[in-house]
Design goal:
Length: about 160
């Protein structure tokens, strides 16, 4: 089926929208794409997004802001390809593979932009066991902290 309907730019998002991405932020994010990353199911390599950041900025800014204003992620950003990658070589059975989900690089850029805005809006007074969206904090930190707390309670005799 051929689509002959010309594309139309949507109106600017309303001022009361909680999050609106600027073209400068989108361009900066596109310019930082790793060119050696594998292309996702859309087959658009990172090199193209990085090298064509100036040309793609306005289009992707519109798509991202429309997505945020409508609270709907476009279908083209939701697609994923599952690729089996060997855990070790030589491969002797199916259990020697691990699944890797390849998503479009545009989606990763969108997530990075939204995450950056979430991080800047978080208060500086997070609880110490809070690990999400905190710089230099990881799952390992959460596991170590929980293990330490559990062992400390086991050592204390009530």
């Amino acid at each position: 089926m051929q689509n002959d309907t010309p594309a139309q730019k949507l109106p600017t998002p309303p001022n009361n929208q909680a999050l609106c991405l600027s073209p400068a932020d989108v361009r900066k994010t596109l310019s930082r794409v790793n060119p050696s990353k594998a292309a996702g199911p859309d087959n658009i390599p990172g090199r193209v997004l990085r090298d064509c950041a100036a040309q793609l900025t306005d289009v992707l800014t519109d798509i991202f802001n429309t997505s945020l204003s409508q609270a709907v992620v476009p279908t083209c950003l939701k697609s994923t390809s599952i690729i089996p990658v060997p855990k070790k070589s030589p491969v002797s059975c199916l259990n020697d593979y691990r699944p890797i989900a390849l998503t479009p690089i545009k989606r990763k850029c969108f997530e990075r932009l939204v995450m950056r805005n979430i991080k800047t809006s978080l208060p500086n007074t997070l609880e110490p066991p809070q690990f999400a969206y905190c710089p230099n904090r990881s799952t390992d930190d959460a596991i170590s902290s929980t293990l330490h707390l559990a062992l400390t309670h086991l050592e204390n005799k009530c």
